Structures are given as structure tokens and as C-alpha cells.
Amino acid sequence: MRGIKISWLVGIIAVAVIGVSFLQVKWLSNALELRQQVFDQTVEQSLNTISHWIMFDAQNLELTPDSSFSQGQVLIADGMQNQSRGVLLRMESLPMDSLVALALAENGVTAKAVYGAFDRYGQPAYLEGENEIYREELIGKGYEVALGPLQLRVFFPNLKKYLLESQMGAFVLSGFMLLVIAIGLIYVMRSVVKSKELVRIRRDLMNNLTHELKTPISTIGLASEALGDKDLDLNEEQTSHYIGMIRGENKRLGVLVEKVLQASLTDSKSMKLYLQKVNVHDLIKEVVKNVTMQVRRKGGKIDLNIVAENPIIQADSIHLTNVIFNLIDNAIKYSPDGAQIEISSSQTDEGVELRFRDKGLGIPKEFLGKVFERLFRVPTGNVHDVKGFGLGLSYVKNVVELHHGTIYAESELNGGSTFVMNLKSNPNPLA
Q: Which of 50, 85, 240, 246 could form a disulfide with 63 if both were Cys (CB 3.0 to 4.6 A apart)?
């Protein structure tokens, strides 16, 4: 129910963010549109100013036989009216580049402009050679103002870029805000998904934990009642059997509690290492000695191929022993009866590499990257098929990383698994 409420909340937030994003984009679009309108009015005002400057006394100018035009201009056609001639002479006499730039700048327009004068048929009467490439744009998209019988047209090649740059501050701020909102929403959604998955895993953990604890407690209770029942005439062999059951189940409970404590210690970030010189081979042999009986009961065996030349490293012996036990225990649990486990060691430049290989069920590729996650257990079809809580490998990874080492898994489904652990001879050389 809580998961459903959270999902609804995330959905509402997502809709709200989309709505805000739409309003932001709409606002920016309107701002750009308004800026375009202001720009259009400003350019028209500037063109009127330019027209006034050019037309001043242009009608009093006459074209004499000696009149000529600067190189790069297109000559007007034969039969041009005197007023047109006067306008062109006026344009010729003025520094047009400076004039256009000055008129625009006085109204706050700094965008690059190209210009030209055209007759009523769209033919150029005054067009600088370098502006010839913009002839079609001047006719089709340019701003215009009348110069007597001619038209002065102005076109801005980089108008869109100019308008965007003028609004760049608002665009950047809005984009940043939308990005922050989007990142926040993604983070919330991922957190919700992760939370729901964690709830599911914890539920499975509690179900499994209840099952794991119930069995030894029931066994101990039954054995205790049998030993305490005076009506039962137990011989020595039967008494020893019940006592063995109690000891075995009590030891099993101890292992379960130890795993939970390990996970709790890791989760609290309070784990501290007490480094000392230890022989990794000796630790492996000690753990193997303790689990040999368990492996033999399943008809399996553990082969050792520990050949590293220098197995002495700086490590916390207690935590490293737990790591080795967890890896071996994991191999036993995920191996069928007759488990074949091989532990090998080799020397590396920085220390020792240990490999724990089994021929068990293997790990599907889609789960291989998750095996070290806390509370994660590889699905086996039945939550109780394989005993455990998904805590061991998480603890292993934390301990190895605290030793500045690395650990990873190699596996194929139904082809067994290999856990490769690299430990440094001195994980803290400055200490």
C-alpha cells in the first residue's frame, strides 16, 4: 500500500515537473517572440532615420555627364528617373557602412547588417559586391524603407543567433533550473524503485530468517524435552544423539547470529581493522579444517593449491578469516551433493591472489554484478532452497575493500563460480 502511495506521489511530481517545464519553455518562447517584435520596431525606426539622412537634399542633386560610381556597385539601368539618380548619388556620397551601423547602434541594435537599394521590380540599384550573396534574402526577408522610387533593404544574416544571445541569461538560468528539477525527479524515482526493491528483499529476508531460526529452535526444544522426559528411558547412545543435536543446532544459531552481526557492523560503517602480519595460507587451512566435516557429509571435498611464494600480508586476521569462511560456505551452499571446491593462491606484484572455485549451480549473467549487494540472493525458484540471507558476500566485499583489495566473480549458469580476491601485502604503506 505504501509503495502504491509513493508511486502516486512520484507520478504527481512528474506531472508537475512536466507542467513547469512546459510553462518555462512557453515563457521563453514568448520572451523570444516579444524580443523579435521589439527588434522589428527598432530596425524600422533605424531605417526611417537612415532614409531621412539619405533623402536629405537628394532631390536637388543632378547627374552630370562626368558622374560615375565606385567600383563594386551595380549601375542603375538606362532611363532611371532623376530622383533615383539623386538618391544613388546621395548614397554614393555618404559612408553607407558607417551610416547603417550608426543608425542601428543608436537604437541598441549591434547585429551585423547587409543592405542594398532596389527598384520596384526587385532589381538592385545599389548593392555592394560583398553583399551580392545575400541578394535573395534582402528581397525575400529583408527589412525595407522607401527611398523615393527605390527601396532600401536591410538583412541580418545572424539574426536568430543575435536574438538568442540577447536572451541567453534567461535561457541558461531556465535550462539550469529544468536540469536540476529533472535530476531531482530522476533521483526520487530511482530512490523509490530502489526502496521498493529493498522492501521486497527485506521481506524475503525476514521470511527466510524466520524459517532459518524456527528449525534449530524447534529441534533444540524437541531434544531438550526428550532429555527432560523422565518417562523416556534413554540409553547412552540416544542421550548422546540428542545432546549432539542440541550442540549442532546451537552452533547453527551462533553462525546465523554472527552473520547478522557482521552485516550490522558493516552497515554502521563502524568496522575497524587491526592489521598485523598474517599467513593467508594458514588462515585458509584453518577454515578448511573446520568445514571439512560439513563438506564430507555432502560427499564433496576441498582441494588446496596454495602456492604463493610469499603468503605473508598485513591484514585483520579475524575479518579475513570470516571472509574465507563466507566464500567457502557460499561455495558449499550453491553446490549440489558431492561439492567439488578448489582454493588456489598465486603471487602478484602487490601481494596475493586467491581463487575460490566450485562446480555448483553457477550465477546467471544478469545477476553476476549484483551478488555483492547487501541482502541480494540469486533466485533459485524457492526462497528456502538455499540457506542464507544475502549478507555474506556483502560483508566479504566490504572487508576486502577496507584492506584496499579487490574481489570479483566469474561464473556461468550450471558451470560453477569462481571468486577472485586480490590482497595487498601492505594495504597501508604509509602507516
A: 85
